[in-house]
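Continuing from yesterday's entry. The apo prediction looked reasonable, so today I'm repeating it with magnesium ion included to see how the binding region is handled. Same sequence as before; SMILES copied from the compound registry.
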Amino acid sequence: MCGILGLLLQNPDGPAATEICEALSLLQHRGQDACGIVTCGAKGRFYQCKANGMVRDVFDAKAVATLLGGMGVGHVRYPTAGSSAHSEAQPFYVNSPYGIVFAHNGNLINTTSLKHFLDADAHRHINTDSDSEMLLNIFANNLQKTGKFRINEEDIFTAIQGLMVQCRGAYACVAMLAGFGIIAFRDPNGIRPVGMASRALADGKRDYLFASESVVADACGFADWEDVQPGEAIIVTRNSLSRRRLAPDATFAPDIFEYVYFARPDSVLDGVSVYRSRMAMGQLLAEDVRRIMVEEQVRIDVVIPVPDTSRVAALELAQQLGLPYREGFVKNRYVGRTFIMPGQQMRRQNVRRKLNAMALEFSGKNVLLVDGKDMLTLSKQKKGNKTERICYKDSIVRGTTSKEIIQMAKDAGAKKVLVASCAPPIRHSNVYGIDMPSPTELVAHGRTTEEVAAAIGADRVIFQTIENLVASVRQFNSAIPTFDCSVFTGEYITGGVDDAYLAHLSRLRSDNAKRKEAPTEAAPVAPGCAGPLNGADDTIGLYNSWKGTSEKELAERGVVA
Ligand SMILES: O=P(O)(O)OC[C@H]1O[C@H](OP(=O)(O)OP(=O)(O)O)[C@H](O)[C@@H]1O
Ligand SMILES: NC(=O)CC[C@H](N)C(=O)O
Ligand SMILES: [Mg+2]
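Holo prediction written out below.
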């Protein structure tokens, strides 16, 4: 998953980079590997800074000050194609036609044929293995076909319509045309999110923002958030806003995993509050847990979430069951999200660095025996013999987190650990922008629920049903006809995903394949962890970047004070 941003300020000299940088940090949870900003200043000139690393590592005040102009595009990256080399950090840029900058969230599934087309027919050089660079070049090639000295909105719609026929997969995109404006579009199935908001100015005009999630609009003072519709393109310039549905017949199928894990709870995606949907996941799962407690004579004393993402649903589940909710795992706030870290070794190491079990909650058997309302009395009791805990998870994917935290809970004294997951078992590859290309890396692949429990060391695992997961989201917007649930069902909404493609993807992107590709000279440093920062020296600028310019000269040019 990646985060994308576009900002158009009415003031052409306005500090777009400052706001984009702020906004990117609000999307950091969508990608921790690389980030970048390109702005457009006077005479349509682009200013770029991108590199591997988190937003706070790549952008210091000086880096932001060198990005001039009143409009720009930003990106945080979680790679799903190509490599994690900083040359694949986004936004991408092509100079012809007109000068285009491009940021993409999602993943294309027909890159083999696109690559051939770009080489043999369009004669465009693709310099990386990134699918996003191909997508940009398809767009550029379609614009080129107009042959015009200056293009208009109609030409841009035609180019994107063509792209929607040529490109298969998931793509939410933001593009910027030099001296023209910002364009956002979403694939015909609307698999990945992107929305728009605006800010009224004193003169009646408006600044425009595009972002992957609505939290950006809330936190940055923009209003009137609305989703870009599936298959829709929106173009904003300083004088106009134009929008068009370019692929109206496709089935709308946003990815349900955004609600389970990816998006921030304070975002609203496609009219559904992520927070409310997670509460509903907890409520519906509580019914299954209650049934199992009765049928299997299971007694649960306490519900413990695996922070962060599962907290909302875990609290709701605990309340539904009348059980105490306790924060038994403390999270190190300086370690990023582990699931989106590259490589299994890094993910495993970081679960323990990130989460620590509090012995107080796990070994003090007289503390948390039954339900919350009797806590004080019970805490005075001597050792009880009921020590079943329920560890609540939003999802079990590779099982990395589950295995480690179950062991931690047991090491801390819990006798039995049950795991409830608000998503069903994940048994299939993701091809639309989540880096789960190889089913053999998924703990539930080819395993029954009992076998998953054994594999992660749990005494019992309870999965949400797919029907209840869909109901948790759909009850808040029944206009969404269906969701992309491919990781649970193996059904891919775009078509074009057969066994041969999945085998190819797995060869290309499994952890094993990536390990072979990875450069060996430097030890990998987990995103969000202490380690060598990428800093200004590793950033990629454009020919007119300020890299190497002395402080004195920057001050003379008015870039820094
Ligand atoms: O089964 P696994 O392969 O281990 O993956 C699933 C876990 O990874 C995610 O946590 P993550 O640390 O990425 O982020 P969070 O702090 O937002 O929960 C997710 O919330 C699960 O806890
Ligand atoms: N997660 C994503 O959206 C990734 C975007 C793009 N496929 C890349 O690898 O850079
Ligand atoms: Mg988690």
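Comparison notes:
- The radius of gyration is 24 Å.
- The first strand starts at residue 3 and ends at 8.
Will overlay with the apo model tomorrow.
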